[in-house]
Automatic annotation (TrEMBL), chain A:
It comes from the Bacteria. The chain crosses the membrane at residues 12-31, 43-62, 88-108, 141-162. It comes from Sphingomonas natans. This is Cytochrome b/b6 domain-containing protein. Keywords: Cell membrane, Electron transport, Heme, Iron, Membrane, Metal-binding, Transmembrane, Transmembrane helix, Transport.
From TrEMBL, chain B:
Residues 35-357 form the Catalase core domain. Has an organic peroxide-dependent peroxidase activity. One of its GO terms (molecular function) is peroxidase activity. PROSITE patterns: CATALASE_3 (PS51402). This is Catalase-related peroxidase. Its cofactor is heme. Its EC number is 1.11.1.-. Pfam families: Catalase (PF00199). Transmembrane segments: none annotated. Belongs to the catalase family. Keywords: Heme, Iron, Metal-binding, Oxidoreductase, Peroxidase.
């Protein structure tokens, strides 16, 4: 039997996969429109972002406590490096994106409303220039995140359909 | 390395799945498919109608100054909304008085509407932001018409002025816009920021403690008696006369308005800001807005906020007016742009730097 990721790691992976993909689509969708979809999607963007931040921190702890299954011994060094590097980036982005969102809304002088009546405290002082830079970073990193996820899915399917080496099953099985 | 022929279909399948995901993302983001109006598109057309980009300034209502004070709630508004602002008490307010238009150094001597951005600080970090105008109606009823009107107003490169051959047909086919322009032409303009009313423009939904939802508009009615601006001599007035008058007036004492909540009658339109609610309405006086300080933008603390009318506390929500989400999205786009460009000193500060005295 193929070695698999620990059960908490697998649950967190698939739950967060759904949330992060939803989040990227919500972000792209809300910026595309001036209809009532705009405030509706924006109202979802903040609580889901906070949820992803909390889950990502739990996941980081799970990752540090449970060693993931080893990569196949015959995987070329370049693919090993790509696998390791992309996973560092994925972890960095799933923690950084919600933090940047929270920080930029703080710097923009906006109330960080998770839902009506529940407002998070600001984590940066009001500074419109800082807001402008963080907001630009939030958008650019979102595109980078989406491309990284496409690469991640492509690699997972490559393991599943072409190499058939058990890497896909270690998370999906 | 030659790819074995038998895995080609599998690689094609992977590529097709990734392409499908990318297409879904592009469709959701509005890059492909039917034309959608984004907040950025509204900011774009405002820039075009302004004739140029003024970096660091709002794409509309570019000229303004800062005000601050408080709102004294008498508790009467609580029958309509559980918003904290309507609980008896005093709440800090900052705001920004502005004139319409995208030119930050425009002269005040033109038939232009006055606006007020307000930010009410409520307990538990809640806020209520408003962007209110001295006109009870708006110039168009929906974002598509707003974009079309701005497009028709883009200055002709030859004359530097809007082309009547483009504006004319728009106004002719939009009686509500003709009505607004007629209102601006015939209705008396207040002679000061301080002696005119300010209207919520759009309808909103108020939720009371029992969960009942009602459509409400509101207006701030000035304590100072209304006096009319002499439109005949407008172009002879000093460049910043409206703003200078406000700076000087606040030094004499606080300026006050009553906040009057107006409850919709059955049949009142909540989705069209070009239509006034006429006839008798249930009105509630919710308290007094007191502005006791005014400074230039450069010296004050109001410029770097976005007076997004959809930043609302619990007990208040958007109505079905299509202008509300469009205002929210467009203001956000303008805020993103001017933030990245970096704020600049305002017209009144620049004039003082050049030796003007109040």
């Amino acid at each position: 039997m193929t070695p698999r990721f620990a059960l908490p790691a697998r649950i967190l992976h698939w739950l967060m996969a759904a949330l992060i993909l939803a989040m990227l689509l919500i972000g792209a969708g809300m910026l595309s429109t001036t209809t009532a979809r705009y405030p509706e999607l924006l109202a979802w963007h903040r609580p889901i972002g906070l949820g992803i931040l909390i889950l990502a921190l739990i996941r980081l702890a799970v990752r540090l406590m449970h060693r993931p299954p080893p990569l196949p011994a015959d995987l070329p060094p370049l693919q090993v490096a790509a696998a390791k590097g992309s996973h560092y980036l994925l972890y960095a982005l799933m923690i950084a994106m919600p933090l940047i969102g929270w920080a930029m809304q703080s710097a923009g002088g906006y109330p960080v409303t998770i839902w009506k009546g529940f407002v998070l405290f600001p984590i940066l002082p009001h500074d419109i220039v800082v807001y402008g830079l963080l907001r630009a970073a939030h958008g650019l990193l979102a595109y980078a995140f989406f491309l990284l996820i496409l690469g991640h899915i492509g690699a997972a399917l490559f393991h599943a359909l072409v190499r058939r080496d058990g890497v896909f099953e270690s998370m999906a099985g | 390395m030659a790819v074995p022929i038998r895995i080609l279909p599998r690689l094609a399948l992977i590529a097709a799945l990734l392409a499908a995901l990318a297409l879904i993302f592009a469709w959701v983001g509005g890059w492909i498919g039917r034309g959608r109006i984004s907040g950025a598109a509204v900011a774009d057309v405002l820039q075009a109608a302004n004739g140029k980009v003024y970096p660091g300034f709002r794409r509309a209502h570019a000229k303004g100054l800062c005000v601050s004070g408080h709102f004294d709630a008498n508790g009467a508004g609580a029958v309509l909304s559980r918003a904290a602002l309507f609980q008896r008490g005093s709440y800090p307010v900052i705001g920004r008085a502005s004139t319409g238009g995208g030119d930050p150094i425009s002269a005040d001597g033109r038939p232009v509407f006055h606006a007020l951005g307000l930010r009410f600080a409520l307990p538990q970090g809640e806020e209520w932001r408003m962007a209110i105008d001295h006109t009870p109606i708006f110039v168009v009823s929906n974002p598509a018409d707003f974009v079309a009107l701005q497009q028709a107003s883009i200055p002709d490169p030859k004359t530097g002025k809007p082309d009547p051959a483009k504006i004319g047909p728009f106004v002719a086919s939009h009686p509500e816009t003709a009505a607004f322009l007629a209102y601006m032409k015939t209705a008396p303009l207040p002679s000061s920021f301080a002696n005119g009313p300010y209207y919520s423009i759009n309808a909103f939904r108020f939720l009371d403690a029992a969960g009942t939802s009602r459509a409400v508009r509101w207006q701030f009615e000035p304590e100072a008696p209304f006096t009319e601006l002499d439109k005949a001599t407008l172009d002879k007035r000093p460049k910043d006369f409206l703003f200078d008058e406000l700076l000087a007036r606040v030094k004499q004492g606080p300026i006050r308005w009553r906040m009057i909540l107006v409850v919709a009658n059955p049949g009142d339109r909540t989705d069209n800001a070009t239509i006034r609610w006429t006839g008798p309405h249930r009105q509630i006086d919710a308290g007094t807005l007191v502005l006791d300080a005014a400074t230039t933008e450069a010296a004050g603390n109001c410029r770097d906020y976005n007076y997004d009318p959809l930043i609302l506390p619990k007990g208040v929500a958007a109505s079905d007016d299509p202008l509300l989400p469009a205002r929210s999205a467009a203001y956000a786009a303008s805020f993103r742009r001017r933030a990245l460009e970096g704020p600049k000193p305002d017209a009144i500060t620049l004039d003082y730097q050049q030796g003007k005295t109040l």
